[in-house]
Amino acid sequence: MKTSAGVSPSLTGTEALITLAGFVGVYAALLGLYSYVVTRLIREEAPTRPATPAGDEHQPGATIPNDD
Description:
By secondary structure, the chain is mainly α. The protein has a domain at 15-44. The protein has one helix and no strands. It has one helix spanning 13-43. The N and C termini lie far apart (75 Å). The chain crosses the membrane at residues 16-37. Keywords: Membrane, Transmembrane, Transmembrane helix. Residues 45-68 are annotated as: Disordered.
């Protein structure tokens, strides 16, 4: 297929520009929403783990006893 055959003769420059502006607008809105959510998450206090009872060996980071 030649390039000249792949062009839509009914599409005007104005229509293409409006479509491009729509895509830019949608992605700008998504970027704004993403930035808002990430900023809000960063500013929140980090969640803390509930206290575990002493001697609970099943908690992450617990020491492994020597098997010497």
